[in-house]
Amino acid sequence: MEERKIVVPGETIVTGEDFLPGDGTRRENDDIVAGKFGLSDISDRLVKVIPLSGVYIPRRGNTVIGQIVDITFNGWLIDFNGPANGFLSLSEIPRYISKDEMRDYLDFGDVVIARIWNAKGKGIDLTLKVRGLGQLEGGMLMKINPNKVPRVIGKEGSMVNLIKEATNCEVTVGQNGMVWIKGNEIDKELRAKEIIEFICKNSFVEGLTEMVKEFIDGGVKK
Amino acid sequence: MRGFTDKMAEEKSKYTKRADGRKFDELRKVEAKVGIIPEADGSAMYKSGDTIAIASVFGPRTLHPQHMQNPETGILRVNYDMMSFSVYERKRPGPNRRSQEISKVTEWALAPCVDLSEFPNSVVDVFIEIPQADAGTRVAGINAAAMALAHAGIPMKELASAVAVGKLDKTIVVDLSKEEEDFEEGEGATDIPVCFLSRSKKLSLLQLDGKISTEELNKAIELGKKACEEINKIQTKALKEIKE
Lengths: 222, 244
Fold this sequence. Notes:
The structure holds two protein chains of two kinds.
Chain A: E1 5-7, E2 12-15, E3 20-21, E4 25-28, E5 31-34, E6 38-43, E7 46-51, E8 63-72, E9 75-79, E10 86-89, H1 102-105, E11 111-118, E12 124-127, E13 134-136, E14 140-143, H2 149-153, H3 158-167, E15 170-173, E16 178-182, H4 186-201, H5 208-216
Parallel strand pairs in A: 3-7, 10-12
Antiparallel strand pairs in A: 1-6, 2-5, 4-5, 6-7, 8-9, 8-11, 9-10, 11-12, 11-13, 14-16, 15-16
Helix pairs in contact in A: 3-4, 3-5
Chain B: H1 4-11, E1 30-34, E2 42-48, E3 51-62, E4 75-82, H2 97-110, E5 122-132, H3 137-151, E6 160-168, E7 171-174, H4 178-181, E8 189-197, E9 203-206, H5 214-241
Parallel strand pairs in B: 4-5
Antiparallel strand pairs in B: 1-2, 2-3, 3-5, 6-7, 6-8, 8-9
């Protein structure tokens, strides 16, 4: 695998028929050209650009955390910091709800964790018909840069588990950059928030896990 | 076209140097920085001599008012504004005819680089602020906006670089300063802002204020193209340097 490097829009990443253009790239004659600012990544023959900054762009299968902003006659509109509000249809919730009871099930301002099942075409459609999804009650919500979500989660959730152990809080990270924290005490929740902010700030540091461990023990200052 | 500035300097020996000692095809001292506004989704600063432009990008986000929404594609909305203390004589704050025109031409200059077909009914907002002006603010704004758009992770075909070329009496020069813009001897000053796209080398902005012959205009555009390539290198460098 070739080394990753930062590319700018319009820059040729590789030349040759052997490569396939993936996310954030396009083919122009023989060249694979970057269509976005970010890190170029070549694995096997697939070339793609991993964005470094910017807003969250919804993809099918992503799990997101959002807030109910509107209730229509057959569903809910959810704001999850995307380019448009997501739509959660009445038929996409795990049990039957009559149209009159919609506000009892999910009310304005309620926080939900949902999965995107369709991001193409008109609107973004969400579903709750997967295990682990649904309303998030209590706790607090914080917003981070969506490009740093993989750092906060860590390899196979190692970083999130670290935070959970250190603070005894439940931590759920949505791929849209919304983080939901719930603990028994407000101090613990704030501590978890502090740790997450620390991770976002130092996301480019090598050996981040070690550094976060030290930070949790009070070794490193902000 | 190479070397024509030197030849022209020989022909018109009356003016051999510019007021600030630059060569005819030399840019002012340029500085570019990406990621200067933490609240924005993307931001950049472009400084050319005493002209400073700051661009911030927000979105793609839902477009209001709704009647402006386009169900086929997202739209780009540019807002250019000069701060009231940016010029010697205080500028009355708020939009005016000039800033509205510049917002519009900047929008048109940047539109061919971005690809917003993925985001129907949404808008990408670009805000360009000029905290300090010394001619060439619209081109500085375009340069900053192009970097800020890339920084915001907007799908883009290429970058855009702009420069103001001009004619002082009979000499074609690049990147006019305010002093040069007000030059009145001989044929006076002509100001020609041009914007080139980085990959396709297409011209996306061409304005002209003053008098110039077709032949000279072609020369000026060619000179602008070279300067834009130089600016593109600076923009690329600034983008590659960021570490968040």
